[in-house]
Amino acid sequence: MNLVLFLLQEVDYGPFAAIGAGLAAIGAGIAVGLVGGSTVESIARQPEMQGKLISTAIILIAFAEAVALFAIVLALII
Amino acid sequence: MDLITPDVGLLFWTLVSFIVLYIILTKFAWGPILGAVKEREESIKQALDAADNAKKDMENLKADNEKILNEAKIERETMLKEAKEIKSKLISDAEEEAKIRAKKMVEAAKTAIQNEKNSAMNELKNTVVDLSIGIAEKLISEELADKDKQLKMIEDILEDSKLK
Amino acid sequence: MTRNFYTLFLFIFCCSFTALAYSNNKIENSKEDDFDVNEVIMHHIKDSHDFHILDWNGHPVSVPLPVILWTNEGLVAFMSSEFHHDDSGATVVKRKKQAFVKFHEEIYYAGNDKEGKYIQLDSSNHPINDKPLDLSITKLVFSMFLSIIIIFIIFILSAKSYARSKKGEPSGLGKFTEPIIIYIKDEVALPLIGEEKHEKYLPFLLTIFFFIWINNLMGMIPFFPFSANLSGNIAFTGVLAFITFVITTLVSNKHYWKHIFWMPGIPVPMKLFMAPIEFLGIFIKPLSLMIRLFANISAGHIIVLSLISLIFIFKSIWVAPASLLFSVFISLIEVLVVAIQAYIFTMLSALYIGSAMEEQEH
Questions:
Q1: Percentage of chain B exceeding pLDDT 70
Q2: Per the CB < 8 Å rule, is C207 touching B25?
Q3: Domain coverage including residue C96
Q4: Does residue C213 fall inside a structural domain?
Q5: What is the 3-state secondary structure (H, E, C) of chain B?
Q6: How many domains are contained in chain C?
Q7: pLDDT over 70 for what percent of chain C?
Q8: Whole-prediction pTM
Q9: How large a percentage of chain A has pLDDT more than 70?
Q10: Is residue C168, in this structure, part of any structural domain at all?
Q11: Of C114, C137, C160, which residue is a domain's last?
Q12: Both C194 and C309 in a single domain?
């Protein structure tokens, strides 16, 4: 009980927030890597679709980054 | 936490500014621009449609032309065929007629020959009769000098004619 | 080869002026000779009542902006220079028989004078004074007005350039904006909203796209009138997401609501399970729009500011080339991210509006 109260009041959760943000960044990195790999493979299969594929890939990367940024916002709150 | 609590003043001003922006832009910017773009698209579409229609019309015309040509060809062949038939028919008709005429002429000639022959025979007969009468006359005159020879001759002639 | 090196050096040298623009009053009142990175960054990200330009010989030079308050006695307005750059609640401004103090860029009613302080702080150093309704023209509002003026100039000029030629071809500025407008019309609005209704919502989408893009771009420029972080403020993105939510709810038809509460095509227990999730989804979708834009832009600003603050943390000029190189690199990525985020916001808005209006196709 004392431990819980102590944790609620005294501890600065800054470092843990940063660790959480870093973990979210791992997820974003994996997602971007997967998208990039699929894009490169499909460009190799059909080079004439290159423009459309790259635009789609950039949009999907932005979505993946957005999810990681949700976690960063939470980290910033703390 | 301070970062994600929205500030009332900013909320208010953002709402006001966005609505003002939207109204003014719709009226003065997007209206003309989108209208001009739409007009351009419509005119392009119309031009393309007109081109399509023209193409279709041309194809129709071409198809009609071909049909007319085909029909003309068929007619020509039919006419040729008919002409040939008529020609052959004419020829055969003419042949037949010629044959008939020839036959007729032959018959007429035969008849004429027959007639001539008949008349010639008649003439011959008459001549022979005359001749024989003359001869007979002469003979008879010679023979009939004697009266008995005349009576015998008449009895012979009557016997011959009775036998016939 | 030498010419490329020279150009690169000149480029980095010119970019080093951004470091000058970012340095601020932390130098002048740090008696402990300490550079509080957090404070600097937060000061740049957040709103403020005056437009801080630079520090000159220890004096901050800034443009004061009007402070408009809705108090119990009505509307009160004054210039923020009356606070004399004070942020710790010591200077009092009196108007209409009321006294105001500014503490950490928020304006409070001045409390009773206890030990010479007008602000009462509670245990976690948060003030507990009352606040009037703060409608002032802050730095971000001023930057928003500026961006609105810029948008007006650009688009009304390009709309006028259509009238000049007879065949509907633009000239000048219209030639630049038209491909973007047509791109949004044909690739975002038309496939997502549908053939017959997309023209009604196209002005809204175009306005959102260019508003967000121009604001983001203005936040990237580091000198005076442009450096406010407007799209990285949650109130701004919240309003845009809220407007999208309102429009989505207003145009929704029966199929949309049916799909939310009683989704066809799955067995009944699943329908009951999906209903609360879908209901929450109605609110979470605009919320995610808001957070996505806010987080992307704020993160970009924070990264650039941190990289430049490296110079001040290490207090050495030799960190400058590396730090500037990184920050230039990140700024270039930011330019791309800014356009992409505006495009994604617009595309998702179109998607939500289109899916709310969709007729039954299966």
A1: 96
A2: yes
A3: 64-137
A4: yes
A5: CCCCCCCHHHHHHHHHHHHHHHHHHHHHHHHHHHHHHHHHHHHHHHHHHHHHHHHHHHHHHHHHHHHHHHHHHHHHHHHHHHHHHHHHHHHHHHHHHHHHHHHHHHHHHHHHHHHHHHHHHHHHHHHHHHHHHHHHHHHHHHHCCCHHHHHHHHHHHHHHHHHC
A6: 2
A7: 87
A8: 0.73
A9: 92
A10: yes
A11: C137
A12: yes
Q: Are residues C79 and C149 in the same domain?
A: no
**Cβ C246 vs Cβ C352: under 8 Å:** no
ipTM for the whole complex: 0.81
Domain boundary among C81, C114, C137: C137
CA nearest C138: which of C107, C95, C109?
A: C107
Chains in contact with chain A (at least 3 beta-carbon pairs closer than 8 A): B, C
pLDDT of amino acid C22: 54
Mean pLDDT of A3-27: 80
**B8 touching chain A per CB within 8 A:** no
Q: Do C159 and B26 touch (CB under 8 A)?
A: no
Nearest chain A CA: its distance from C337 CA (Å):
8
Q: Is the pLDDT of residue A11 over 90?
A: no
Query: Are C147 and C99 in a shared domain?
Result: no
- Contact of C81 with C50, CB cutoff 8 Å: yes
Q: For residues A43 and C65, which has the higher predicted lDDT (pLDDT)? A: A43
List chain C residues with pLDDT less than 50: 24-32
Assigned domain for C1 exists: no
pLDDT of residue A42: 94
Same domain flag for C344 and C275: yes
Q: What is the mean pLDDT of residues B47-66?
A: 94
What residues form DSSP beta bridges with C69?
A: C76, C134
Residues C130 and C149 in one domain: no
